[in-house]
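Bench notes, afternoon.
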Amino acid sequence: MPELPDVEGFRRVLSEHTGEPIVSVSVLDGGVLRGVTARRLSAALRGHRFEEPRRHGKWLLAPAGGPVLLLHFGMTGSLTWHGAAEPQHRHDRVVWRLPDGELRYRDMRKLQGVHLDDAESVLGDLGPDALDVSRRDLARLLSHRRGRLKPALTDQTVIAGLGNLLADEICWRARVNPLRAASDLDADELTALHRALRRVLRDSIRAERVPPRDTWLTGARDKPDAACPRCGAPLSSRRVSGRRTVWCPNCQPE
């Protein structure tokens, strides 16, 4: 599932082609369009130029001299650059043709999609971007939450950008159990959680994904008889608010 680091990678792809004229817009599957028709999307963008894009949480915002193009990648989406002669993939849904190639929005499951709107109307309910959250912000955001820590971290109205892998990795790095009550963390635990958040995001953005390294929880969580990369204890796993949650009961006691 694309999370903040993946979308930051997509932002970099688009940023490399800002200022180039949009020759055409091809909607290959209207099932990814949200609140806009294929005709309106093409008319609004054709002949315009993408300006410097920005990201908020898992959303990519691409102004183009008028309404803002907003992309959400759901569980299987991506934005990639291709030569015009390169064969299209069967899951390519929207293609923006530029003079030297194409930007392609690809998504197998089509759970989210492409918007053309005022950014505030789409992003107004989101919490702050995870990269911008200070230690004080984190304490404030979690102190009023009822329920467990993991759902609070992945709730986009609380903090925008964290998904399943990032939340588990951050909790594991901080040695905080994801099943703990979000409002019950003490000062030291909040500090550890914030430091882990910053470190995991920094390294993941560099890799443009949550990297499945052997020294990371992400690299161990899906292995048979998965063991903690830090202490070697068997990992625990259960569904929390519909999401598979993984932790080390030795390093992250309840």
